[in-house]
Amino acid sequence: MAAGQAPHLLVLGDSLAAGYGLPQDQGFVPQLQAALAARGRAVQVVNAGVSGDTTAGGLARLDWSLAERPQAAIVELGGNDGLRALPPAASRDNLAAILDRLKARNIPVLLAGMLAPPNLGAPYGREFAAVYSGLAREYPDTIFYPFFLDGVAGDAGLNQPDGIHPNAKGVAEIVRRILPAVESLLDRAAPPPDQ
């Protein structure tokens, strides 16, 4: 497949998608693109990650992000909602609106879940986690990856000194774990229109 015909995979997210604190080639998007290329998949992974963004921010800029005309999308949002202790119901509504807009355009989606910081207490944590599992049930066509930082959160060796953002090794572990789900997502994507 020629580069001009490579499907576009949109990554709508926050600092975890944007590659906060990392060299340009070590963030999630470039590492994911490299991993897909190593698997023989010609895909243009589009970085629509904005550090500090909430689910509301992601929803507000979704139409702008869709100017890339992606054939598939990863939605990685919610970490900042949790850090700010925003109401989980509002996060759920924002994520549902994003999923609705992508569904209306026939763009298959991988929804990456997030967990709230433990210092906010167990009740908030349960309500926050239920946002993602609930959306996965509500949108059964969506591929659900329960926790974006699975295997990385809480491991000092895989995170930057702030304890929140993965280092390059941590990103590599995220990519390794999420890759099968991303490949399933791409298998659902329609071929890009002729250039």
Mind explaining what this structure looks like?
The protein has 195 residues and is an alpha/beta fold. It has one domain: SGNH hydrolase (Rossmann fold, 3-Layer(aba) Sandwich). The chain is 44% helix and 12% strand. The protein contains eight helices and five strands. The chain has a five-stranded parallel sheet with strand order 2-1-3-4-5, sandwiched between helices. The radius of gyration is 16 Å and the shape is globular. The two termini are 12 Å apart.
Please tally the helical runs, counting DSSP H or I stretches of 4 or more residues: 8
Helix content: 40-55%
Please report the distance between the alpha carbons of the first and last residues: 12 Å
- Specify the biggest β-sheet: 5 strands, parallel
SSE order and pairing:
Layout: E1 8-13, H1 15-18, H2 28-38, E2 44-49, H3 55-60, H4 62-65, E3 72-76, H5 79-83, H6 88-104, E4 109-112, H7 122-138, E5 143-145, H8 168-188
Parallel strand pairs: 1-2, 1-3, 3-4, 4-5
Helix pairs in contact: 2-8, 6-7
What labels would you give this structure?
alpha/beta; 5-stranded parallel β-sheet; 195 residues; Rossmann fold; 8 helices
